Every structure is written in C-alpha cells, then in structure tokens.
Amino acid sequence: MTTNNTAAPRLQVQGIRKTFGQNAVLKGINLSVDAGEVVALIGGNGAGKSTLMKIIMGIYTCDEGEVLIDGKAVKLGKPSASLAQGIYLVPQEPMLFPNMTVLENILMGFNEKEGELKKRLTECMQELNFNLNLQRKANTLSIAEQQLVELLRGMMRNARILILDEPTSSLTFNEVQSLFKTVEDLKKKGIAIIYITHRLTEVFEIATHVAIMRDGVITLDGPVTNFTKEMLIQGLLPNDSQGAQQAAKAYAPVDYAHLKPVMQVTDFSGYGFSNITFDLYPGEILGIAGVVGAGRTELISTIFGRDKTLGGKVILDGKDITGLSTRKVLQAGINFVPEDRHYHGIFKIRSICSNTTSALLDSKEIGAVNMNRRRQQEISQKYVNDFRTKIVSQEDEIGSLSGGNQQKVVIARALSTRPKVVILDEPTRGIDAAARGDVYSIIKQLKEAGVAVLMVSSDMEEVVELADRAITVYQGRINGEFSREEITQDALTSAAFGIVQEKRTV
Description:
The chain has helices spanning 49-56, 79-84, 102-107, 114-127, 143-156, 173-188, 200-206, 229-236, 241-247, 296-303, 326-332, 341-345, 352-357, 373-387, 403-415, 433-448, 460-466, 489-496; strands at residues 11-20, 23-33, 38-43, 64-69, 72-74, 87-90, 161-165, 192-196, 209-214, 217-223, 263-270, 273-280, 285-289, 309-316, 319-320, 334-337, 421-425, 452-457, 469-474, 477-482.
C-alpha cells in the first residue's frame, strides 16, 4: 500500500503467521502503512485482527514472518520494545486510572522533570488543538475525552505509529467529527495510523487505504478510492458462500401460521441497545447477527436478568418477566449458554457431573440440594450419551475436557432445567470443526423437540446454516429482518456492517 516509491513504509508486516494449538489464526499476513496514511482494517469477529495487533504491540510473538519499521526488521518480543519503536495502541475502552488526574495519567512512567514534561505536553496539546483540564480526575471524563488522553499518552511517548481500535464505537456524532479532525491533524504530522473499524461508512470518510481480513488472511487491500462499499462486503464473504447458503436450506421451515409466540420482546431497551422488538416461536431458531459492540450480547444478557432493563417488555408464555432477576428468569423457563465458557460457563475444578446439574440449584421443579448423587449421575449420563461427549468418567474435572466437549456440558446444563427458551451466545466460538458439527446437531435437536432457540452469532455462515429467521443489530438497533429464504451471508454481512439502513419487514 505504499504511495511513495522512494521511502520505505513506516510499518510493514511480511508473511506473519500465528498458530494456537491446532488453530492457524494468521496465515501469512502482509500489510504496510506509510507515514501520513490511515489504513482502515476491517474484518469479522475471529478474522485475526486482534492477534495481528498483539504481535505488532509485542504482546505475542509470531511463528513466522517479520515486522519492519522504516524498512528495517525489528524484534518486538514485549510491549516495551514496541513502545520504543514508536508504536502505540489506543484501545476501544480507554484504560485510565480513574482516581488520578489527566496529567498524572499522561505523565505516568516518565523520569524527566515535571516542568519539562508539562511544557512538552502543552506544546503537544496546542499542535492538536486539544482543550483538556489537566487537573480533572479521569473518572469525570467522557469516552471521547478519555480517548484524547490516550492519544496524548502516545504522542508524549513519540508515537509514530498509532493503532486506533474501534475509536468511534461509544462516541456521539459531534465527537466522531472531532475525532476525524484529530486524525487529519495526525496525518499531517506524518503519523502512520491503523484504524480498526466495523463501520464501512467511516472508511470512506477518514481512511486513505483499506485492508480486509477474513479467516487469517488479507482478502482485499489498496487505496480507498479503488473500492465501493459493495466491493468491501464481497471481500468479507467466503469464496464458497453461495454454495454453502443453498446447502443450508434443506430442512423444513417453521409453520408460523399455527403457532403462538413463546416469547415476545417489545420496544426493549437497556445499556447498549434500544427499542428492540421481535417474537420467538416454539421450535424456532432465531438468529441475531452483528459485529462485536453492536449490542447483541447486552440485549440477551438483559433479557436473562443480568443487566438493568431501561424500557419495554419481555413476555414469556403470557407472563411478564421484564426486569426479573436471573434466578426468576431461569425459573420462568429461559436458560442461557454464555459466550465465554471459561469465565462464565464452567466450574473448572468441579466434575463433569456437578457442572451438568449445577443449574438445577435454581430450578423450581428439582433442587440439586435435595437430589442424591445417583440422580445427578443419571441426568449427567443422559446428556453425555445424547451429545456424544467424550469423557473417561463423570467425576473427572471438566477442565480436563477439550473445548468442544466442555461446550457440550455447558449446553447440557442449560437443558437440564427443561427450558422453553434457550439463549445461545456464540455457541461454537473456540471449538474445532468436528465439535462444531456436534453442536449444530444439538441445536437442531432442540428445534425438533419444540424448544425455542435465540442464537447470537457473529459467524454469518452459522446463522445461514441454522436460523429459521434472522435479525441484524447495528449500533444497538435492529436494522434488518430476514425470513429463511432471505438469509444469505451477503445480506447478513451487509446489514451487520451498516450497509442496509432500512429495516425490512418479514
């Protein structure tokens, strides 16, 4: 992506590969950024963007390939080495010390005299037209102001390469415009910028170049002027998406005409989403697609009683469950399979049997407190058999199982309460292809048994494969609704990245 034929790129990665276990995350990445360029880096969840940035930041080391600064290969084995090369990351969620002042947050770690540092900081703020009260506590700042502090941290450390990770995700329109002006000023100073975003409209406003990552490779890159939004969408799609989409539509559609909704969500609002409305039917798999930060996880977490409801209604089988505690929502007939099984899904040092039956502690019908060990083992064994979970003994710690088999236990625990609705948040994240197929089979079994499934997934292929209907969430609102026949990777991806602005009615 070099525009200057005589000067080497400010930052260049060549042939970067990274594998975790059997999972190849980066498969030979080549990317370059010149001084004064803004390269917009786009990719779905799991594309490898975070891993690549962690290599550039010195958090991970690559298995193969090299990183070059101004044409010279550098060794970045730790974050301090990246900082020494002038590389600085402005995270999506600023990481400031809340009870310290702006000045203290910026100057932390410096050994120079405070007077000299303050003078340099004042000059930096004037160059960028930043107006911040340095004596304010960080916990009084808006997100936009916190980002300015992070930028000043980088500039005070002589940053020549800035990585901006989803910088507009929590900003108002005016704050976005202010950020864009700052980026333009940084470009004029010769700063090379990697701008990670899910918002394709921003690419054409702020970037000079664009690169799309999918499944560990760069599928498209070049000057922004060479592309349209539609071309970027195509770069995000698998090459064989059409064939997969056709093959996925094999099973019979739900006969909605003869069904009543088991769950009705009306004008539902909470932190990170607003005015969400949809119905969910028995034996239906409703896919909720979108990218990270769209509000999907916040939505289902609020339905399940984990977060505060700000407005609207959730009706389950005619009963108003809006704002109820997680325990009461579970007792009403909803259970939840979380995205992160390691932190929220399993008790690592407890047995497989104990993990499978632990949800029954909150069951209205059966209490594990009153359940003898034999009955617990019977319940656990049933799911082991039904799900083909590979175990040696039910008394083995769940932490000894593979990721796929752990996920089967987490799903089994959710089903042990015999719910009317199962919420699945990224049900196949972090598991191998064989286990993924098993989980798909389990989800289809739920459908056949008449259980309603609310499935959140950023894997568009997964939604195409499983969903009877789908909605897409963008910036906290539903911006697309799709019948079974309308669900394609192209349509879902476009809506998830904000290209489909008009809400379509099924």
